[in-house]
Specification:
4 copies of one chain form a homotetramer.
Chain A (H helix, E strand, L loop, with lengths): L1 E5 L4 H10 L6 E7 L8 H4 L10 H4 L4 E2 L8 E4 L3 H13 L3 E4 L15 H4 L5 H9 L4 E4 L3 H17 L1 E10 L11 H4 L10 H12 L2 E3 L2 E3 L4 E8 L6 E9 L5 H10 L17 E3 L8 H4 L8 E8 L5 E7 L3 H17 L5
Parallel strand pairs in A: 1-2, 1-4, 2-3, 4-5, 5-6, 7-10, 12-13
Antiparallel strand pairs in A: 7-11, 8-9, 11-14, 13-14
Chain lengths: 346, 346, 346, 346
C-alpha cells in the first residue's frame, strides 16, 4: 500500500522514513513538507541526521507542498501543530486515512487516540467519524510521546488493580523537541524544568486512552494524573518517575508479576511493529536507562524498573520508552498496521 | 580560629578549601586525608578541579593521616561514610567541634542535623551531647545535599500552612557523587534513575530537621516524604520537582507570596555565609535551571519556580540549590558560623 | 563615557552588557537590535542566559532599531555579518567610534584588526581612516575569536624567534556559534568537523595582526597558517592544538621561558580589562582545559600548555582562551579602552 | 573454533563478547579476568553497558582467573597493559594463537602489528615467531585505536603517491579510556588535551604498519608522524584532523578519487568482519561526524571527508572510525579471521 508522509523533513518525519524502509505493508511514495522544502529532492531538502543511511528511493522523491493533492490512500503526518489541523482535516475529508502524530485532533470526539496494545477497540470510532465526514477518510491520532510511555506502563496495572491517581515526573529527551529544537547552549550542563503544553497533555490524554468507546462516544477513565515535565541532555528516550494509587490492594510482588505477565492483545495479529513483550520489567536497581533501554523491542517496547512501595501513594516505578519511535513515528505506524489488519484501509 | 579539613582532597574537601579562602572567622591550618594522600603536599595530593585557583597557603600544607591528632579546635569533615563515623567520634571525644558533611552521625539522638535557617534552635542539643561525651567536643551534621535543597524550600510553607505530605523527584548533579564518581560513559546521553541510599535519606532527614528539640530529645515533624532520585549530566546543582500537601488551605498567590516573603532567622547574626534572601522565587516559566541559578546567593540560596496547583496534592513547584556549596561544604561552614556566633566554639 | 551596544540581545551582545556593568570608563546608555526586538524593554527582548543577573539599569532600556541615530560617541557592535557592514559604516561616517566584533570590516585597508597586546601600534591607522571618511568617526575591529587566542600565543614567539609556519586544529565552544546556534541534537555525543568560514579567517587574519602599519598601509607578516576547525560540546573556551615553525633555533626551555616571560606592552596604561599576565603557561601535562582555564585573568588571558617538540615543525603546544570574553566582547572592550587611553575617543 | 576472551569484563572485553555473538568462525567458550571477577558468572562479574543484550550463553560462563590454563586454541586479549605482557607471552608459548588489543607486544620484532587491509602480508612473521618460541603459538597485535583509523585512511595515499609527513590532531571518544575511565566531572563542558602515551603510539606504530616484512625483519616506512591527542565528550568514534605531505604531486580530485577507489585486498577472502568499502569518502562539508558515521560498515569502515589542500603540507582531511569496534575488538577479530582464512589457526 502506497503511503505519503507529511512533514517528512523534520525529526519525526525522518523517523517515519527510516522505520518504513522495507516495511512489509507500506511503501513511501510521496513526501510533503512546508514551502521551504517543497519542490526539492527529499535528500536535499532534509538535514538527515539519523545514523542509518537515508534510503535512496525516498531521497529521490520530490517534496510536495502541503496543499498538494495526494495519491496515497494512507497518510502519515509529522506536521507541527500550527499547520497540522487544517491539512489533516482536508485529507481525511478527501478520503485518506490519516495516522497523525500531531496534537490537533487528539481530543476530537470521534478520533481514536490510539495505542493499539492499550485501546485497540477505540478504532470503532472510525465508523462514526466516516459517517460525520461523509467520506471513507478519517484520522487516528498518536498520543503525546510522554503519554504513550506512561500509559503503556499503566495499562497492566489498570487491568489488574484499577487505577485512581498517578504522579509522574519526566526526564525527556532532546529529540522530543524536534529539530533544530533545543539550543545546545540551553542544555549543556543544564536541565530545562518546563516543556510547553506537555504537562497538560499528560494530565488529560491518559483519561481518554484508558477510557472506553461506548454508545458512540468516548468515556474517560476516572484516573487523576499530575505531571511535571523536564528536558534533559539525552538524545532519545523519555524516562518517567511514576507513583500510582491503585484501586485494589496489591503486594509488591503482585505488581511486578502483573507488569511482567502482561501480554499484548495484538499478539495474534502479526503486526510487524508490535513488540513482544510490550512491557519489559528489569530487576536491576539502576534500570531502565535511556541509552541502554530505549532500543528495546526495536524501540517499540516500554521498559519498567525499580518497582517499589511509595510512602504516599501505593507504588513507585520508573518507565522508559523511545520517544521518536514508540512515542511518535513507530507508534503512528503501528496504529496504521492495526487499521490495515482490521480492514479499515480501503 | 584555626580549622582542619578532613577528606580535604575529594570533591567536597576541595569546596571547603575554596570557600574558606579569605574567610573572616576561620583559617585552614590542617588538612587530613586517607593514607594515599597523607605525607604529601596538598597541592600534589589532590587533583584540584575547581576553576578558581588553589590557594597557595593551603596547597603547601602537608596532608596529615586521618588518625593524627589535630591542633585546630574546629574540624570540617568531608570524609566518606566508611571512615567518617569513627574518626569524627574520636575527634569529638577529644574536644574538637566537628562540623561534618558525612551521613554517619546525622540521626544520632543528640547530634543536630543542622540547616541554620531552618532549625538553628537544634544547637541546644550540643549541651546534651557534651554531657554525654564528658568533653567540650561535639558533632553537628549537615543533611544530605538533596535534603537541604528540599527542606529550605519547604520551611516557609511549613511555618505558614503546615506540611503533611511531600512527593519529590530529583535530577541531581554529578558532583554529588564525588570524584571520580560517575564514569562519563555512564552518563553521556543518559540518566541514571537510582542513587544508592539517597531516597531513604530524603524520606527520613526532613522529619528530624523540621522537627523540634524538646525535653532533651528530637521530636520528628509529622511529615511524610516520598522521593525518587535520578542522576543527570549536570556538573553542579540539584533540581527537584516537588508536590506538597499542606495542612491549611492556601491560594496559589498565598503560597508564592509566602515563599517570597520568607526571611532567614539568621539575618541579624551577620554570618558571612548566610544568603539573603535564602529562598529566591522566580516568575519565569522555565526557571530555576542548574546552570543559571545554582550560584544564586554565592551558591547558598535555594531558587524556587513554577509554583502551581497539583491535581493530586495541593501545590507543585521546582526547587534548585548548589549541591556542593549549599548542599555540602558551604552548608557545613554556615553551621560552624552559627556555632561561632552562638559562642559554642571554645 | 556613554556607549551603545548594537546586536545587544545576542550571545555576544549579552556579554557586552555583562562585562560593561560597573565599567570605570564606559556606561551603557543605548542598546540596539533587529526589528524583532526594537521597541521592547531589553529585559523582555533578550533571552538572558548568563549566570550573572542582568543589570537592572540595562534591562530597562528600550531597544532601538538598527537604523536609529545614536547619541553615544562610542558604539560596540555585536551584529551578525549580514547587517553589520552597512550599519557600522554609517555610524562611523556619522562620527561614532565603532568597536566591532563583526567580520565585515576586518580586512579593510585602514581598519585596525586589533589585539591591543599584540598590535596596539595599529591604532595609527585611525588617522588615515578619519581622513578618508572626513569624519571623527572610525571603526576598529576585533579578530575572529579563534584567531585572537592563537595570535596571543604566537606573539611572544614571533618577537623572540620569528614565525614562519603555523598548523592549528581547533576544538571550539558552542557559544562561538551564537544563540540559538548549534542544535543540541547535532552536538550531543558528537563533534562537528566544520565551521563555515572559520579556517579562512584563521589563515588570513593573523598575517594582518602580526604585520605592521607602515607608510599608510598594513603590511602582512610573512607567516603561513593552516587551520582545521571543529565544534565540540563545551559552552565556552576555544582550545587550539598548535604546531609552529620558528625562524630561529630555540630549545624547549627557551620557548617555554619566552612564553612565560612575556609581558603585555599595555601594562602601564592601567586598562581595566587588560590581563596580567596575558599569557599563562601551565606545567601540568593535561592543561589547559576549557572548564578550568577559560576564566583565567577574568577570561581575558590565554593559557598555554604542553609545550613540546614537534617531529615535523619545531614545537607543539595547546592554547586556550575564552571565546566570548577575550575572543569577542571583552576583546572589543579592551580595544575601546586602548582608544580611550590613547585619546582617540572624542 | 573455540575462543577465549581475556579481560572479558572491561569495555573492550564486552565488545568482543558482543561482536562474537553468532560469529560464523568463532565461539566464545572461555572468559578470563582479574581476581576480582574470577569465579563469578560473567553476567554478574561484568557491568554490561552496551545497548544490545548480553548473550545468555556467555553470561552463564564462569570467569576464569588469568593464570588458569585455557582450552581454546584462539585467545582474544583485552587485557590492560600492566598484566597483558606476561599473560599473553605464556599463552603463546603454550601453543595458543593470541590476537591482542594490548600494547605490550606491538613493537616486538616478530609480532605482526596488524591491520589486515593494510599489511596482511605481515602475517609472514608468524613463522619466525613460532620458530623463536618453539611452539605453534604466537601473538598478533592490534594497533592503538587512533593509529588504526589514521593508517587506514593513509594507506591508499601511500600506495598511490607515497607518504612523507603526517600531522594529526585527534578528538577521541570516551570509550577509548575503558571503563570506568574518564570521570564525568572531568569531561562535561570540557576537553582533556592529553592522553597518556597516545601521541607516542601514533608517531611510531604507523611506521611499522606501513612498512614491510623483509628478510625476517620488519622495515619501517619512512614516514614522519606528529600527533596531538585530545579526549572529547563522545561515547564512541575517534575523529582525526590530518594533514599529509605526499611523495608525488597530486590534484585534489586525484586524492579524493584515490581514497574513493580504494579496494580492500581482503575482498576475495570472504572474511565476515571485513568492510567493503573499507574507506568511505563523504562529500558533505560537515562529515564525518562521530554519531553519524562511527557505525558505517558495522563499525569497521573508516569515513573520510573534507579533503582539501593544506597551505603548509599538501592535503588536509578528516578521518573517523569506531574506536572500540574497528579500533579494538572488531579489529582484533578481523585479525583472527585473516589468520583463520590463511590457515594459521591450528
Amino acid at each position: 500500500m502506497d503511503v505519503a508522509i507529511l512533514g517528512a523533513t523534520g525529526a519525526v518525519g525522518q523517523r517515519f522514513v527510516q522505520l518504513l524502509a522495507g516495511h512489509p505493508f507500506f511503501t513511501v511514495r510521496e513526501v510533503a513538507a512546508s514551502d521551504r522544502s517543497a519542490g526539492r529532492r527529499y535528500a536535499e531538502a532534509c538535514h538527515w541526521n539519523l545514523p542509518t543511511p537515508l534510503p535512496d528511493r525516498v531521497g529521490d522523491l520530490v517534496v510536495k507542498p502541503l496543499d498538494a493533492p495526494l495519491d496515497s490512500p494512507l497518510v502519515f503526518s509529522a506536521l507541527p501543530a500550527d499547520v497540522a489541523g487544517e491539512v489533516e482535516e482536508r485529507l481525511a475529508d478527501a478520503g485518506h486515512a490519516v495516522s497523525t502524530n500531531a496534537r490537533n485532533h487528539r481530543m476530537d470526539p470521534d478520533v481514536p487516540l490510539l495505542i493499539p496494545e492499550v485501546n485497540w477497540t477505540h478504532v470503532e470510532a472510525v465508523a462514526a467519524q466516516r459517517a460525520r465526514r461523509g467520506s471513507e477518510g478519517f484520522i487516528v491520532a498518536n498520543p503525546n510521546c510522554s503519554t504513550i510511555v506512561l500509559t503503556l506502563a499503566l495499562k497492566p496495572l489498570q487491568d489488574a488493580f484499577g487505577l485512581e491517581r498517578v504522579m509522574v515526573t519526566t526526564l525527556q529527551a532532546l529529540s522530543g523537541a524536534g529539530y533544530p529544537g533545543v539550543p545546545s547552549l540551553d542544555i549543556l550542563d543544564n536541565v530545562l524544568p518546563h516543556i510547553g503544553g506537555e504537562e497538560e497533555k499528560m494530565e488529560t490524554e491518559p483519561r481518554k486512552i484508558l477510557g472506553t468507546w461506548r454508545d458512540g462516544a468516548f468515556v474517560d477513565a476516572p484516573v487523576l494524573v499530575s505531571a511535571a515535565c523536564n528536558r534533559v541532555a539525552t538524545a532519545d528516550g523519555h524516562l518517567e518517575c511514576v507513583s500510582v494509587d491503585l484501586g485494589l490492594d496489591a503486594s509488591p510482588d503482585e505488581v511486578t508479576a502483573t507488569l511482567r505477565a502482561y501480554r499484548s492483545p495484538l499478539r495474534d495479529l502479526g503486526l510487524p511493529g508490535a513488540p513482544d513483550p510490550v512491557v519489559i520489567v528489569r530487576a536491576e536497581p539502576d534500570r531502565p536507562q535511556p541509552r541502554l533501554d530505549r532500543d528495546a523491542g526495536q524501540g517499540m517496547a516500554v521498559t519498567v524498573g525499580r518497582v517499589r512501595p511509595c510512602p504516599i501513594l501505593d507504588y513507585k516505578f520508573v518507565a522508559l520508552g523511545h520517544n521518536t519511535v514508540r512515542g511518535a513515528a513507530g507508534g503512528a505506524i503501528l496504529n496504521a498496521e492495526l487499521l490495515y489488519a482490521r480492514g479499515l484501509l480501503g
